[in-house]
Amino acid sequence: MTETTPSAATPTTTRPGTPPWGTVVISPHFDDAVLSLAAVLPKLRGPVAVVTAYGGAPEPGAAVSEWDEMCGFTTPHEAHAARVVEDAQALGLLGVAQIALPHPDGPYGNPDQLGHLDQWLRELPADTEVLAPMGTRQEHHALVREQVLLTRATQGAPPPLIYADLPYTGHTPGWHTDGAEQALAADAERGESYRSLAERFRLTPRWEVRLDDAEWASKRLAVQCYGSQLAPLGALGHGLFLHRTGPLRTERVWALEPHAAPAA
Q1: Cβ-based burial of 18 (10 A; exposed 0-12, middle 13-18, buried ≥19)
Q2: Which of 2, 49, 57, 246 is most deeply packed, by most CB within 10 A?
Q3: What is the average pLDDT across 90-105?
Q4: Which residues contact 178 (CB under 8 A, 6 or more apart)?
Q5: How many Å apart are CA 133 and CA 249, to the nearest integer?
Q6: 208: part of which helix (H) or strand (E)?
Q7: Secondary structure class of 104 (helix, strand, coil)
Q8: Signed CA dihedral, 127, 181, 142, 82: sign only
């Protein structure tokens, strides 16, 4: 693989309809789609694009965030440039396209202002399938989910598919079993987003992939592309999340169907 220096990184902001994507996966940050869906991505209707909502560069003069300092960076622009390269390498391994929207990451912008995401989604062909994160224990992920739901609803388009964001959802006891949905719904710590969606929609499993050895090897290589963030992720509550039997091993995606309106 040809090395790319972080200083040369430029995120792609291809217009929504070029090429006509079969599936678009909305990733809140660089790494979320791969952590959550590396085994599912090759199975989706192609061509597939991963669109990072908070993919923009920080404003000049911004101070480095605590998270980026933990990742070893001295400036936010160094962090952003490195992550664009990491993301391109990971998505290249999985054979999907990289698109980054100009919203800066949370510490460097207004995470609830997602106008670029709204506009980008509105320009998609109507038959494009869209995946959005569940938002388990992640405020910014939930903001992205709600923006995708709102935009699709105002367009009269079908709701997005919802994917379990890993490793967060994957720590649910019983995640790798047939009783995972019941366990998630009952989990006081991790089930809030699932319960919130279940109040508005009927969730029907679309994809459930318990990674075999070949799929795990492919996912591990892609996840390891995000090397700048792996140590802090492990240190801040996720432990040995790259263990073969850890929270990344099972990926789940649900279709949403609005509940029927009560009879008059």
Answers
A1: exposed
A2: 49
A3: 96
A4: none
A5: 17
A6: strand 201-210
A7: strand
A8: negative
Q: What pLDDT band is residue 249 in, cutting at 50, 70 and 90? A: very high
**Structure-block tokens of residue 103:** 């919203």
* Cβ–Cβ < 8 Å for 45, 21: no
Q: Please state, in angstroms and rounded to a whole number, the distance separating the CA atoms of residues 133 and 29.
A: 11
Q: What is the mean pLDDT of the chain?
A: 91
Contact 99, 14 (CB under 8 A): yes
SS3 215: helix
Q: What strand order describes the sheet that includes 23-27?
A: 97-100, 48-52, 23-27, 129-133, 161-163, 250-258, 201-210
CA distance 14 to 21: 11
The pLDDT of 171-190, averaged and rounded, is 96
- Residue identified by tokens 């090395």 is 3
* Whether the Cβ atoms of residue 161 and residue 35 lie closer than 8 Å to each other: no
Pairwise CA distance, residues 121 & 153, whole Å: 11
Unique residue bearing structure tokens 């987003």? 193
List phi, psi (to 5°) of 151.
-65, -45
State the pLDDT confidence band at 6, using cuts at 50, 70 and 90: very low
At 197-240, the pLDDT tens digits run: 999 999 999 999 999 999 999 999 999 999 999 989 988 889 89
Say how many residues make up the chain.
264
Q: What residues contact 88, with CB distance under 8 A and at least 6 apart?
A: 4, 9, 98
The residue among 217, 218, 181, 216 whose CA lies nearest residue 202 is 181
For the cut 90, the answer to whether the pLDDT of residue 27 exceeds it is: yes
d(CA 119, CA 150): 12
Mean pLDDT of 79-98: 97
